[in-house]
Amino acid sequence: MSKMHIKLTVNGQEHEMLAEPRELLIHTLRERLNITGPHIGCETSHCGACTVDLNGKSVKACTVFAAQANGAEIKTIEGFAGPDGLHVLQDKFREHHGLQCGFCTPGMITRAYRLLQENPNPTEEEVRFGMAGNLCRCTGYQNIVKSIMAAAAEMNTAKEAAE
Amino acid sequence: MIPSGFEYHRPSDLPTAVKILDEHGDEARVLAGGHSIIPMMKLRMADLSHLIDLQDVASLKEVSVAGDTVTIGAMVTQAELISNDALAKAAPILREAALQIADPQVRYVGTVGGNVANGDPGNDMPGLMQCLGATYVLYGSDGEREVDAREFYEAAYMTARADNEILTHIKIKATTAGYAYEKQKRKIGDYATAAAAVLIEQSGGKVTSASIAMTNLSDTPIHSTGAGDALVGTACDAAAISSAIAAMQADILPNEDNRGPIEFKRHVAATMLRRAIERAWSRA
Ligand SMILES: Cc1cc2nc3c(=O)[nH]c(=O)nc-3n(C[C@H](O)[C@H](O)[C@H](O)COP(=O)(O)OP(=O)(O)OC[C@H]3O[C@@H](n4cnc5c(N)ncnc54)[C@H](O)[C@@H]3O)c2cc1C
Ligand code: FES
Ligand code: FES
């Protein structure tokens, strides 16, 4: 099978490579680009540990060919913390114990980020519905929901202060 | 789990896509959101030498509501369908059903066309489209043709679509009927143990028309005309609902699998249909 020329912009940085069409995006990120934040949990499109933000949508990178993502803008957990420290979501997950082993956390935060972009003022029920594609085997979800609600509140306060 | 190798094509118009399909016969398949076909390829349940990605064919993304004719392009995603207010107004059952499909990540990429063309009895849109009496528009090297959704499904993964045809869009009639899509699943993101799609129109407290379809209770979706007929002319009372359920039971043929034995599925089917009829009636 002939290799394809693929270009991806990941966390603002451009990457070009040759890849077989069957290469899954999660492997491109983890094995070629050494971006190992997105995890492989189930490999069967169920757990959401591999979630990345692809052209403004939360997607499971284990179920996308790198070829499909050719030309795309991708954001992973590595793109969250800035020079001033942790992103609000990361900070609130830490503060509210939104993680235990941490395996699901990169996917959780990447998904929660898109959820809050689309719905900056979610109810608890909307957070649970919007996070339904991400499984966690440790926390029982309670503190994940709490962390996301707290992040939403802080992001809104910061937005109001800026206005 | 990495699928076996294939050639990837990304045409930007339909005629080119069909040409590639014609050239490679059943070795080729179109790729929409990939959230049914990629898992199948990983499991080696589908083995293909050519995948034709439709993401750049802009015409397949179009949605229009003109008068009472609603047209949905095959490449419209579940998420786009849910967020489209014109669609939700023209046929609110679309949004209600789409919100019960899979999870947010899957809905961002899974398409309406892939869902109805796939032919998996577990998919929710085929039953919904039968309930709505939708028309599928297919395009191939011999031109375009239309197939009634109620005539489309032949057996699991077998449909009236020829290997070299592409589903381009779905046409439905806007409807103000009372509606409900009721689905039982083991967990969020799961396929249905049983699901029911119901549309009811009424006048003066009596049902004037009813359309009922069931998901994942046979190797195809089931449009139960008997169940709909049992409601027409009644006040949708308990006796009428029981007759509709009995008629539906005569039309389905569930299998035993990891979602439970046959008796259980029939029990869940009855419960889903009862709830769907009651909710649709309350909105009629
Ligand atoms: C975790 C998970 C949970 C899910 N839960 C549900 C659920 O509850 N309910 C549900 O209904 N679905 C569910 N799905 C399936 C999901 O909705 C799929 O996205 C959908 O079935 C197929 O759409 P797709 O765009 O991904 O199609 P693809 O996977 O790209 O294609 C599926 C098949 O249809 C063919 N096809 C696609 N588009 C066309 C076209 N335009 N013309 C002709 N043939 C075409 C392809 O060749 C392929 O054979 C789930 C999937 C996952 C991964
Ligand atoms: S690894 Fe992709 S969904 Fe689990
Ligand atoms: S913190 Fe362990 S899986 Fe979520």
UniProtKB/TrEMBL annotation, chain A:
Which CDD domains does this one have? fer2 (cd00207)
The lineage's top-level taxon is Bacteria
The entry's protein name is (2Fe-2S)-binding protein
Positions of the 2Fe-2S ferredoxin-type domain? 4-80
What is one Pfam family matched by this protein?
Fer2
Q: Which residues form a coiled coil?
A: none
InterPro entries recorded for this chain?
2Fe-2S-bd, 2Fe-2S-bd_dom_sf, 2Fe-2S_ferredoxin-like_sf, 2Fe-2S_ferredoxin-type, Beta-grasp_dom_sf, Diverse_Oxidoreductases
Which key words are in the record? Answer: 2Fe-2S, Iron, Iron-sulfur, Metal-binding, Oxidoreductase
Where does this protein come from, organism-wise?
A: Marivivens donghaensis
Keyword Protein transport applies: no
UniProtKB/TrEMBL annotation, chain B:
Could you identify this protein by its name? Xanthine dehydrogenase family protein subunit M
UniProt entry keywords in alphabetical sequence? FAD, Flavoprotein, Oxidoreductase
Pfam families reported in the protein's UniProt record? CO_deh_flav_C, FAD_binding_5
- Domain of life, source organism: Bacteria
Q: Decide whether keyword Transmembrane is in the record.
A: no
The residue stretches assigned to a coiled coil in this entry are: none
Domain (FAD-binding PCMH-type): give its ranges.
1-177
Asked if the record carries the keyword Nucleus, the reply is no
